[in-house]
Amino acid sequence: MNALSDRNFTVAIKELDEAIRIDPRDTMAHTMRANTYQLRGGQTGSNEDLDKAIAGWTEACELAPDKALEYRHQRARAYRQKCDYPKAIEEWTELIRLYPDIGRGKYWLADLFATCPDPLYRNGKKAVEYAKSLCEGSKGECTDYLEVLASAYAETGDFGNAVLCQKKFLETAKIDDESAAKAKSRLVLYEANKPYRAEK
Questions:
Q1: C-alpha span between 186 and 164 (Å, rounded)
Q2: Which of 44, 108, 176, 181 is deepest in the core (most CB within 10 A)?
Q3: For the whole model, what pTM was predicted?
Q4: Does residue 82 contact residue 50 with C-beta atoms inside 8 Å?
C-alpha cells in the first residue's frame, strides 16, 4: 500500500470521529479509525497513534464480540508495531487458546519468536513448534507457512532446513516481484548461516 499523506490521515480521522459522534456504536467507523491510526503509526513510528489504534480495536471487540478474533489480532499487530512484545505475545497466545483451529495466532507468534529484533523475546524452539504445526495442518496448501518455518529453523541454527524451506517457498508461493526479492534476500542470509531479523 502506498504511503498516505499526513493530511489524508487527518481528514480521514476527522470524518470517522464525526461518524462515531453521531453513532457511538458504529463498529465499522471504530475499526476504520483504529486501522487509520495503525497505518499512520506504522508509517511515522508514533506510539501515540498506535495507542489510539489499540484502544480502537478494544472498543471494536466490545461492540462486536463475534468478530473479536479479527479485532484482537489487529490489536496484537499494533502491540508488535509499538515494540510491546510481551503484550503481543500475550494476545496471540490467548487467541490460540480461544481459537485452537485458527492458524493466525500460531503464524504470528512463530514469526515473532523467530525474527524479533529484541533477543529477549526470540525463542527458536517455540517458533519451530508453531510453524511445523501450521505446515502439517495445512497439508501443503499454505506456502506462507514455509517461510516462517524457514526463519524459525534459522533462529535455532538449523540453516540447512532453513534453506530448504525457503527454496520451497520461492518455488511454490504465488507472490509479486517485490515479495520475491525480499524472500530471496532471506535465502541469501540462510545460505550464509545468518538468521533473519525483522525491523523495529
A1: 12
A2: 108
A3: 0.89
A4: yes
pLDDT over threshold 80, residue 141:
no
How many CA within 13 A on the CB side of residue 160?
A: 0
Which contacts qualify for 52-56: CB closer than 8 Å, 24 or more apart?
53/78, 54/78, 54/79, 54/82, 56/30, 56/31
**What amino acid occupies position 173?**
A
Sign of CA dihedral 19, 20, 24, 26: positive
Question: In this predicted structure, what is the pLDDT of residue 109?
Answer: 95
SS (H, E, C) the chain: CCCCCHHHHHHHHHHHHHHHHHCCCCHHHHHHHHHHHHHHHHHHCCHHHHHHHHHHHHHHHHHCHHHHHHHHHHHHHHHHHCCCHHHHHHHHHHHHHHCCCCCHHHHHHHHHHHHCCCHHHCCHHHHHHHHHHHHHHHCCCCCHHHHHHHHHHHHHCCHHHHHHHHHHHHHHCCCCHHHHHHHHHHHHHHHCCCCCCCCC
What would the pLDDT profile of 71-93 be if each residue is shown by its tens digit? 999 999 999 999 999 999 999 99
